[in-house]
Amino acid sequence: MNAGVQRLAILGSTGSVGTSTLDVVARHPERFQVVGLSAFQRTDELVAQCERFRPRVAVVPDEPRAAAVRAALAARGLATEVAVGAQALSELASAADVDSVMAAIVGAAGLSPCMAAARAGKRLLLANKEALVVGGGLFMRAVQEGGATLLPIDSEHSAIFQCLPEDRGAWASRIDHIVLTASGGPFRQRDPDTLHGITPEQAVAHPNWVMGRKISVDSATMMNKALEVIEARWLFDLPPDRIRVVIHPQSIIHSMVVCRDGSVLAQLGTPDMKVPIAFGLSFPERIESGAPRLDFTQLGALSFEPPDSRRFPGLQLAWDTLAGPAGSTAVLNAANEVAVAAFLAGTIGFTAIHTLNARTLDRVTPALAEDHGLDDLIALDTRARAVATELMKDLAR
Ligand code: NAD
Ligand code: MG
């Protein structure tokens, strides 16, 4: 890394994590230089970000948006170059003038640029959990072989990372298991028999966190926690039976490590993504995040409860797919992306999300070769999406 200034690419800069990242960066102009930004839809926001942070390049998905962004940049006298398409994201993620990549795209669309950053040996700040759920062992090998530094941004995984001993080799022998906390989302106490009537607006109204729509729905089904169990399996190289989940409605304890001797280490803080983002940006140092501080005198009680499998049937799919053939987690992720998009579009009901995920897993059994590559995973993702889309017809409202 450049001594002093960290040169950053933020993939998905217009999203919830992307804008929180820019909030943190803006507090430390002497530490960070924004080299690249990317947006999928909200190009007005992207132009405003370019005006403020003056990146070398901004990436958009297609030519019509590129033309609109180029015109808006020219009108403001900005020199930011506009690049187009998925390949441009991978080029930005591996560019020579980039030290660190914040992966804040939602979904498997973020896998290829993450792999590019990993292979190029970047410091990779991973919010995009779907990329690791799909990429699995291939992703982790790319990190190792490329000499990249992988830092978790997901709050639970940041918490675990902060509680683990610095010596990675000591993890397996010192740790008994980890406990990921889950808020339980907006339907934690809802009668499971009434879940089918839930609307997209109810599902995205998360009690503790402000997030993008896809992860908000995932939190309501607890598929988010299923994806996080899979994410933890790879990040911390833990067997799935050493990863547990507990509901903690206040979202103050972000996760816990239970040591061999029974000692439990936890990381606490207000539920604000700027904390794990600032940690990832500055690790091993600590910088001001701008998040409100935890006030223990106002906190009241912290409570815990086991997840109810009738209310949250999707959670178990994490362990089921991790026990299945390699690629099963990619199939689950693909089905879930299709299902959540259909739910948000009003095509299927809330409980049909789980039904579609389970049926797609029944239908698609991956048969990846031991030495499979990124293209094989992308082909599997495409096939699982096609099957899920087909199966969805039976579930349409
Ligand atoms: P979001 O929907 O708010 O933002 C997503 C970003 O990705 C936007 O900039 C969008 O333009 C871009 N994008 C969307 N689809 C794309 C595509 N196909 N190709 C390229 N770019 C695309 O999402 P978010 O809530 O910021 O979440 C981003 C990622 O971080 C997700 O994987 C999510 O699970 C993870 N995460 C989010 C939070 C949170 O608090 N929001 C917490 C932990 C983890
Ligand atoms: Mg999380």
Question: What does this entry look like structurally?
Answer:
This protein has a domain at 6-153: Rossmann fold. The longest helix is centred in the last third of the chain and has 19 residues, at 374-392. The chain is globular, with a radius of gyration of 20 Å. The chain has helices spanning 16-26, 43-53, 63-75, 86-93, 111-119, 129-146, 155-163, 171-174, 200-203, 213-221, 223-235, 274-282, 296-299, 317-323, 328-344, 352-363, 374-392; strands spanning 6-11, 32-38, 57-60, 81-84, 100-103, 123-126, 149-152, 175-182, 243-247, 253-259, 264-268. It has 17 helices and eleven strands. It has 397 residues and is an alpha/beta fold. α6 (129-146) packs parallel to α11 and α15 (328-344) crosses α17. Helix content is 45%, strand content 15%. A seven-stranded parallel sheet has the order 4-3-2-1-5-6-7, sandwiched between helices. Strands 9-8-10-11 form a four-stranded mixed sheet. The site of magnesium ion has 4 residues, from α7.
Supply database-style keywords:
4-stranded mixed beta sheet, 7-stranded parallel beta sheet, Rossmann fold, about 45% helix, binds magnesium ion, binds nicotinamide-adenine-dinucleotide, about 400 residues, single chain, alpha/beta, about 15% strand
